[in-house]
Amino acid sequence: MADVAACRSEQAGAVSGVAGLGEAEACAAGLGGALAAGSDAGSAREGGPELAPAEYVEAFPQAAGIDMPGLDGRLPSRVASFARRSGRLPERGQRLWEEAHGAVVVPVRRGPGMTTVALDYRLDLDAVFGRGAPLLVEVGCGGGEALVAHAAAHPEINHLAFEVWRPGVVGLLRRVKETGVSNVRVVEADAAQALPVLLEPASVAELWTFFPDPWRKARHHKRRLVSAGFAATVASLLQDGGVWRLATDWESYAEQMGQVLAGARDVFETTAAPGERFAGRVLTRFEQKGIDAGRQIADFTAVRRAR
Ligand SMILES: C[S@@+](CC[C@H](N)C(=O)[O-])C[C@H]1O[C@@H](n2cnc3c(N)ncnc32)[C@H](O)[C@@H]1O
């Protein structure tokens, strides 16, 4: 496999009205190749999503039918786990992006904001993948090295990535092209907002959150993706017996993951302490960077209890 995309160790910045926070380390992704375009496979539906965990409702009250005077249909400010950066893709990456749009890149109807999806837009997964199959979702796939490797080893599984960083998406597209896998799709959107909108409850067999942005400083911890609210979203989406896999190379994030899972014991069966490394995860440059820096990798596995 070609060289992998390098991910930032911490991001900083602002989305949707959150004040700017300073330094950002950009990632570099390998680019190249081309893919054929396809068609839109989502659908609008009546009303809001059936799923509305408390934190989701707090952030997106329109989803629960709560009127927000003065917002004029805009989303209220929210704390996001990523910083949106602009910047042009190299020409080959841009070409790859454009040609994959509608095929590997799943088009979604946007909500107000570049990374949100319209609250009444549900994906038709059978149409998106051209078949029905168990669904594995990766949140924050970076350059897609783990997901594409898994997809190649498991052609019987549909793999759906969520990523907000376009060079990362393009890195995934390059890997899809290189390996020739046909069971990978990617949505460019904030997974925290988009997951419960796009996917049916109890529709996911496995969900990965590997090396989410660490947001090391205490004042930035609220930006971390793995929170009680996100756990509620994952619990809603996973089928009974479905698996949530997490990993981090930051001790304080491992503690937070452990606390989040301990707080969700009613819905997840899990080990309180980090367990063995997940053998199905290829070693990404991001994980390698943590190892090189002498950091301990912590893996967690949580199994959705029966409803
Ligand atoms: C540190 S990188 C890790 C990438 C990859 N999982 C790995 O292990 O190498 C974290 C990635 O998560 C993405 N990300 C952060 N918050 C996200 C969100 N709310 N929705 C989708 N992607 C997100 C970032 O853009 C970044 O590419």
Walk me through what this model shows.
The longest helix has 14 residues, at 166-179. The chain has 307 residues and is of the alpha/beta class. The protein is globular and about 45 Å long. The strands form two sheets. A seven-stranded mixed sheet has the order 5-4-3-6-7-9-8, sandwiched between helices. The chain is built from nine helices and nine strands. It has helices spanning 54-59, 91-100, 125-129, 145-153, 166-179, 191-198, 228-237, 251-262, 285-292, and strands at 42-44, 121-123, 135-139, 158-162, 184-187, 204-210, 238-248, 268-270, 298-304. Bound molecules: S-adenosylmethionine. S-adenosylmethionine is lined by residues 7, 81-82, 139-142, 162-165, 168, 190-192, 210-213, 225, 284, 286.
| Uncertain parts | 1-39, 45-58, 61-76
* Helical run tally: 9
Strand order of the largest sheet: 5-4-3-6-7-9-8
Question: What can be said about the biggest beta sheet?
Answer: 7 strands, mixed
Attached small molecules = S-adenosylmethionine
* Gap between N and C termini: 40 Å
Care to count the β-strands? Answer: 9
Write the element-wise H/E pattern from the N-terminal end onward. EHHEHEHEHEHEHEHEHE
Shape: globular
Radius of gyration, taken over Cα atoms and rounded to an integer in Å: 18 Å
Strand proportion, as a percent range, falls in 15-25%
- What is the residue-averaged pLDDT? 80
Helix content: 25-40%
Structural class of the secondary elements? alpha/beta
